[in-house]
Amino acid sequence: MRKRSVIGGLSAFVLAAALSTALPAAAEAAATVRHHWGPVRSATGHSGHAVADVWITDFSAETFTVSGTLRDRDSHPGHCAYIRARFHYTGGGTGWARPRSTCRAGEAFELSSDGEITRVDVRVCVLDRGTRTASHCHVDAIRAETIADWPR
């Protein structure tokens, strides 16, 4: 067998393997519709702030996800960015996601529900690391009807 045909056969095999793993991932990504909610910034009244660039999944998803990047924009030492989500479930009741915080310029986060929801409250605050208290909080209430007519 010639060297060229071995390399060509190997290239075709590698390409086929790559496509077979990429297609299910692409189909899964297409099934998970994400909407860009935009920035959610902590409340004013403090010289620094926290901001989160928020992306959300469809409300029809079995597990609703709030994700994005959390940024600390506070120059005070010991002050960090903090985010938490409160989920309002379709069957009634609410539940909190574990909070995430960062003292970096930017860090990815993901907060997930335990089932289908009708509303999520995204809370962004400045966190004092020393006392572990959140202050200057701002809450964005995101409802299914708010994003129902958004383009996909």
Word description of this protein:
- The chain has 152 residues and is α+β, with helices and mostly antiparallel strands.
- The protein folds into two domains: 31 residues; 115 residues, Immunoglobulin-like, CATH 2.60.40.
- The chain is 22% helix and 47% strand.
- The protein has two helices and nine strands.
- Strands 4, 5, 6, 8 and 9 form a five-stranded antiparallel sheet that branches. A four-stranded antiparallel sheet has the order 1-2-3-7, with no helix packed on it.
- It starts with a helix and ends in a 5-residue tail after the last helix.
- About 17% of the residues have low confidence.
Offer a quick outline of the entry:
Helices cover 22% and strands 47% of the residues.
Shape, principal axes of CA atoms? elongated
Task: Summarize the amount of helix as a percent range.
Answer: 10-25%
Our Rg estimate from Cα atoms comes to 21 Å
Number of helices: 2
Q: Order of SSEs, N→C?
A: HEEEEEEEEEH
